[in-house]
């Protein structure tokens, strides 16, 4: 029989999508007040132009993606609670029933990126409170690898390069934790 161990903390990432920078700024302030400062932030990339215009109507314009990595790593069992909280932030910032910012939290560790979702499917694992988790990328042979269901922007070199930087930072943090035990 295996021994049960506590989970190692993982890097919290939050993928934002917006069209109006004022809504992103409000969301960013809410995220920082809840999760502390971020240590890395991706460059903005034009989601609508590069990948899909799916979110343009709801967001009120051309969707732009930005990903935040938070300095404080968290217990991965908190992912469902984080998703529930980011959904409440989206609701607070909505106008006329439309989200003005999309907030998708996830976790990164040395071997994978997991994203949270409210939508069930055959590839998602129930966590709690109607929240599911999906492995979006896995790390092997020195780079991020996609899966058949990986979101199109998470298949891009832009996102992979950013997440490599996040992974390096996480590995340094993890090494410090392990050496302090």
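^ Assign residues to that structure.
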């Amino acid at each position: 029989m295996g021994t049960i161990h506590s989970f190692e903390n993982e890097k919290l990432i939050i993928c934002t999508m917006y069209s109006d920078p004022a809504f992103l700024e409000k969301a960013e302030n809410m995220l920082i007040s809840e999760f502390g400062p971020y240590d890395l932030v991706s460059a903005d990339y034009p989601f609508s132009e590069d990948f899909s215009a799916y979110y343009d109507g709801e967001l009120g314009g051309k969707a732009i993606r930005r990903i935040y990595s938070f300095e404080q790593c968290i217990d991965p069992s908190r992912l469902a609670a984080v998703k529930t909280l980011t959904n409440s932030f989206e609701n607070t910032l909505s106008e006329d029933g439309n989200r003005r910012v999309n907030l998708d939290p996830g976790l990164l560790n040395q071997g994978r990126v997991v994203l949270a979702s409210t939508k069930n499917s055959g590839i998602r694992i129930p966590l709690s409170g109607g929240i599911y988790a999906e492995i979006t990328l896995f790390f092997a042979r020195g780079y991020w690898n996609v899966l058949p269901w990986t979101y199109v922007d998470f298949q891009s070199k832009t996102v992979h390069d950013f997440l490599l930087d996040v992974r390096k930072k996480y590995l340094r943090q993890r090494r410090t934790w392990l050496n302090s035990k």
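The chain has five helices and nine strands.
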